[in-house]
Amino acid sequence: MLMYARRLKGVSLSRIRKMFEVKGEDMINLGIGEPDFNIPEDSKKAIMDALEEGFTHYTPNKGILELREAIAEKLRVENNINRDPEDIIVTVGASEALYMCTQALIDKGDEVLIPDPGFLSYDACVKLAEGKPIPVPLEGKNFRMNPERVESLIGENTKAIILNSPSNPTGAVMEKDDTKAIAELAEEKNIIIISDEVYEKIIYEKKHYSPGQFTENAIIVNGFSKTYAMTGLRIGYLTAPTEIIEELLKIHQYNTACAPSISQAAALAALKGPQGAVDRMVAEFRRRRDLMFKRLNSMGIECNKPSGAFYMFPHVGDEIKFTNKALKAGVVVVPGSAFGPNGKNHIRFSYATSYEKIKEAMDRIEKIWM
Ligand code: PLP
To answer: Which CDD domains does the UniProt entry name for this protein (predicted)?
Structure first.
């Protein structure tokens, strides 16, 4: 093993990224986790204006002040979180924010509690920082992160816990009481919460509660990829307690310097503009979720009805066998075990594809299942 590859040991390449590459004329891809919508009109215009006006240079490391002020206002009004714009860093997607948090805060051997099943980056980011991911098995049909279970896994080396609601890959939304209980636990045990809230706005019957509402001891990670269908513009943000911001900046300054200027312009326009496009997108996701849920139910496939994000995580038995059979039938899905040991026997369907395609995909799945 070459010396420079030491940190990369134990980190595998993403099995979801691999699914992006599966192509075929008749293939329906239910493996992809990005909204199939356009960015808001106001954002398009802001990008054109930015180009026209030469807004293509470095920005302040933390991001332009106007955007950070708009984010601070959003956090105050929507999340009941009061953070100064100076305690906000605009990032290259939520991905950079997660990477920055783990690189800056985790020392070799530190333990970080992560949801299992959970977004792949959590495990990888903790390992890249030479920390130790500790999976918290999500419980029951609702994939609940049970505060008692969390408490039982906290040890003397526990440095942080990552929360993700609404969740990728399960679509589950945390209950207010559980979020509050974990926030209180984190304060009591002096561990930091990293709360990944990128699906905050893609939520159906339930309401989103950020742990930042209950404790100062939280880093809130969010982004524009999912809410405003801006995955390729790579723009997100985090807010953290003042004393942590400086540590995080040490990674951000030398890693990316700043988020792309034109993406910052697009994000600002998205936040300040009308939110109708978001509402329409969420309504369409709900329509697709209802279709997929009804079809899976009628096939007798055991599945929880997700309250957020655009994923469904049914129980299918041998998930590798199912994935391969689905692939042969022309449907790309992701095996649940890609998201952690507790994802075994499940698969992840994304419904970020058209209603018609979902219908066709369900017909194909029905044939291989029945
Ligand atoms: N967090 C979760 C839970 C995600 O599902 C994703 C993307 O799929 C991200 C973070 C990364 O988002 P971004 O595009 O903002 O880097």
So the answer is: AAT_like
